[in-house]
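Escalated from tier 1: flavin mononucleotide holo job.
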Amino acid sequence: MDSLSQLASFVLSHITGLITLLIILGIGILYVQDRSQVDQTIRRNYPVIGRFRYLFEDLGVFFRQYFFALDREEMPFNRADRSWAYRAAKRESTLQAFGSTRVHHEGDVVFANAVIPFTGESQNSPITFGPKCQAPYTTDRLFHISGMSYGAISKPAVTALALGAKQAGIWINTGEGGASDAHLESGADLVYQIGTAKYGVRTSEGNLDPEKLRSLAARESVKMFEIKISQGAKPGKGGILPADKVTPEIAAQRGIPAGEASISPPGHQEINSAAELFDFIHEVREITGKPTGFKVCIGNIDDFRAVLEVLISDAQKAADLATAEQSKQVFQTYLTDYAPDFITLDSGNGGTGAAPMSLIDAAGMNIQESLPSVVNLLTSMGLRDRIRLVASGKLITPVDVAWALCAGADCVTSARGFMFSLGCIQALQCHQNTCPTGITTHNKKLQRGLDAKVKSNRVANYANEMHSELDTIAHSCGAANASMLNRSHALIYVGNQRAVSMTQVYAGDLTHEK
Ligand SMILES: Cc1cc2nc3c(=O)[nH]c(=O)nc-3n(C[C@H](O)[C@H](O)[C@H](O)COP(=O)(O)O)c2cc1C
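Tier 2 regenerated the structure:
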């Protein structure tokens, strides 16, 4: 006992010296490690101290977000916009005080409020997709959940999104990973995405499996089919699911080996020309009997015009073979059979679970450019009434969504807006399987914080608050509801001083009545 207390008092009296010795020893080991390694120049040239560079580089991401970035400056989404989504999701007040902090830039929208605002009861006008399909789809909601595959996002995230969609009466797009049990069991309206790898509807050779497609379409909750041609964040590149995220469950869902990266081809093997695109749409609609469209991010409006011209000229060729009395009818029937029921127009600055930086940063037209041009194009080609337009890409606040409705979109979808409603903090780690909020990781420990029931309410709250504020904007403009918004209800900044009527700025044939 005596010797033990002697040892204890020795340790206590020399504790500072011992700690100092350990620190010096530790620094010595780090010094030798840094000097002898050849991977990192800074550590080799500045042993020990050079390590702080890597620490600060990691910490800088957090410091910039929390302490230094201004409310309207962060990317991809600034704090002001994210904060609207967070507050709407939590049913906290979305009111603001004192005045606007928004600085207007060229291209920004301002709504043209009416002298006498609308004061009646608002009631959205339903929109029907594929009215001539065997099973058309009608919705009176304007803001839906964009494709995010089960795999890119976690099971609790899919569950919360799908249950939230059901609660709010909006659709959820499955993304290219197929319809998981969480999608199917939620009872939400589903838009089934057929990605280039055709997960969920593929044969062992990777072709479309008509039987799998037919049995999916037989489900009441699967309302529409979306053929993914391209996605704004990575046009020309297929889906990428890093190996870390291909768990046995996700591998089984997709029919691929676990633990290996899932890389979808850049395009569909059936679609090598515009004509083949319309043939494929026709085939999917014939098999499913449900509205079928495609998702695309365009890089050049002339390129897109050329694609649509093929549809019109083939319809004309069919009409030319008919008698003079039947020719108009044959033309329309051709469009009914071959035209897409909808086009989802994605923005070059759209989001992704994983993509090469060059494509994320610098490929594809942004929705602010492409949407007005595509609306004008469809109108001038007489296709605007046949084809519904869904817009997506950084449209997460009521101002963004109302802009798109004014510009001519029938509906808007969002991926990252709904991720914010789930609690996403924009940590930019979706590709690393380390998402701190459990949304894009399959690490069970990180998923623990994401309670699907609580978050499903937030998803629904966000969608509901969005619709309510869209109507507020519409009423201010004198329109009875948000689906009635059109170009006459908005001005667009030309330069940063002068706002001019949207009708003028996006000049085109505006005969289409939404
Ligand atoms: C995590 C994540 C996963 C995505 N997965 C898909 C997908 O499977 N298929 C697809 O077409 N788009 C996918 N997208 C793109 C979105 O559907 C959407 O087009 C794009 O993010 C623009 O909308 P946003 O700005 O509201 O996020 C994904 C986006 C994110 C952030």
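Residues 299 and 495 are 24 Å apart (CA to CA).
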